[in-house]
């Protein structure tokens, strides 16, 4: 049974490593393209990855401050974010579906 467990662990590890290699290659291809994308994010979790590929965060500071402090953005913060998303200044809206109710 121990050898079966070890074999299962190796199989899962190999699968994970292969998928991670694909993901890393995809991220590096996006970075190499230097597309200069601009985004607004409703959660900050993706920021480091998007910064790495060269994207620019256009999320209003007041909205970012609210989300980083686990607070709801004010009506004014939300309006500023929506206005920014509606402008031609943004290519992507990044939403964390786990946070949607």
From TrEMBL:
It comes from Bifidobacterium breve. This is ABC transporter substrate-binding protein.
